[in-house]
Input
Amino acid sequence: MKTFFYNIGYFMKEAWRTIRMNFLSNFFSIIGTGLILFLLGLVTVGTIIGNQFITKLSQEAEISAYFVEDMGVDAAKELVSEIQNIQGVWNAKLIDEMQACAMMEDMLGEEAKILELFEDNPFKAFIEIRIDLDAMETVLSQVASLEGIDYVRDNRAVLKQLQSIIRGVEVVGYLITLAVGITTLILLSHMIRQGIYNNREQINTLRLLGAPGSFIGFPYVLVGVLLTLLGGGLAIALLILLIDGGYPKISGTIPFLPLPSQTLLIQQSATLIVTVSVILGVLGSLFGLSSIGKDNR
Amino acid sequence: MIEAKGVSLRYPDGTVALKDINLHIKPGEMVYITGPSGSGKTSLLKLLLGIEFPTFGSLKVMDKSMVRSRKGRINKLRRRIGPVFQEFKLIEGRTALENVMIGMRFLGKSPRKIKEEAINALKRVGLEEKIYSKVENLSWGQQQRVAIARAVARKPALILADEPTGNLDYDNAINILKLLNSFKDSNTTVIITTHATHLIEGQKDVTYIHVNNGSITVEREELAV
Ligand SMILES: Nc1ncnc2c1ncn2[C@@H]1O[C@H](COP(=O)(O)OP(=O)(O)OP(=O)(O)O)[C@@H](O)[C@H]1O
Ligand SMILES: [Mg+2]
Output
C-alpha cells in the first residue's frame, strides 16, 4: 500500500505517456465514449423528467364530481363533507362557477382572452376531490353513487397512457444503457490492449525485474478511467449545452409540464455519468489487462 | 544461495543447452562463468532468474525451488535479484535515470530515496553526465553501464550479469568488474558471465565455472592464507 502511494506520481505519468503514445486513437475514443455517454445522459434526463411528471400527476390525481343543476349551496357543502369521509379521499373542495372560471384563466394564461367571447360564465360549479391514486376505483364508484352527483370526471385514462409511455421510455432506456455499457467496454478494452501492446517490451522488462502485476497494470486502469472520465466530461458538457438551450423552449411550449430545476437535473445526470464512467473505465481496463500474457519471459 | 542437482535444460526445439549441472554457490560468492559462445552461459542465468525451468533435476535459488508453477513466488524472488541482460533490456524513450529508477519502484522505497540511490549508481558506473539522456541516444557501452546501474541500485542479494563488460573498453571493463566485486563485501552473491578471460584471471577468492557444450566444471580459487 505504501508502495502504491509512493508510485502514484509514476502511475499518472505512465498513464499519460500511454495515452500520448497513441494520441489520435485515444482522442477519438474519448469522443466516441463522450457521445455514447451523452446518449446515456439524454436517457437519464428523459427519465428524470418523465418520472417527475408522473409523480406530479399521481400526486395530483383528482377527480371532479359535478352535481345536479338544482342543488343549493348548503346541500353541496354537505355533499363535500360526505365525500371527505370516503376512504382514499385526501381532500374535497367546492369550486363554484367563479372559481372554475378563474382556474381556467390561470391555466390558459395569455390565451385567457378567449373566455371573453362567452357572455355568461360557461363553467359549472363542481367538487374537486384529491385522492389517493391507488384508491381511484373505489372512490370513483362511491362518489358516483352518492345522491345528488350527476357525473364524475377522472384523469385515469390519461394517467394510464402516460404511465405506459414512460414505461416504454424506461425499457428503451435500459436497452440504451446496456448498449452504452457494452460498447464502451469493447472500445475501452481495445484501447487498453493497444496500449499494452505498444508497451510490451517495457512490461516484459518489468516482469523480469520482479514487478508485481498490480504495479504493471495500474497505469492501464488509470488510462481506462481517464479516457472514460474525459468522455464523461464531454458528455456532461454537451448535456449542459442542450439543457441550457432547450429548457426555455420546452417549458414555453408545454406550459403544464412540470420540469425539475435545471441545476438539479444537471447535477443528477452528471453524477450518474461520472459514476458510470469510472465503473466502465475500471472494468474496461481490467478486461484489457487480462490480455497481458501470463508468460514469465 | 544456489543449489543445483542434476539440472538439465532442453529448449522446446530440442536443443539441449545444459546437461546434468551440479552446483552449490554460497551467499557472498563471486562467480565467473566462462565458455565459448553457445555453450550455455545465458541459459544457466535464465534458469537462475526463472525465465527457463529445469527439464530434469532440481534447482533452488535462495531456498526457493524453481518450478514453473510457482510464478508468484518467482516474481517475488526476482525482486531480490539484480539482472544485467546480455541485450540490456533498457526501456527506450526514457532517460538513464528513469531506467534505473523503474527497477526500484516496487521495492518499497520512497521516491526521494529511489532517485538518490539511482543517481548514485549511475555515478558509480561513470555516467553522471548522462543521467538525463534518453537511453537510445547512448552508445552501447553506456547503455550497458545503465543496465549495470539498474541492477546494482536495487541492492540485490544476487547479481546475475550476462556479459556486463562485453561492449566496454579495458578501463571501463575493469571499473565495472571492480564495482561488481565490491558487492562481495555486503554478502551479495555476484555471478558474471564473460568471454574476457584476460580480465578475470588470477583473482583470489572467486569461483570459475567453465561451461562447455552444456556441461560445467567448477574451479574455486581459495583466498591465499
Ligand atoms: N530460446 C531458445 N530456444 C532454442 N535454443 C536456444 C534458445 N536459447 C538458446 N538456445 C541455444 O542454447 C544453446 C546455449 O545458448 P546460450 O545463449 O545459453 O549460450 P551462451 O553461452 O550464452 O552464448 P553467448 O556467449 O554467445 O552468449 C545455444 O546452442 C543456443 O542456440
Ligand atoms: Mg549468452
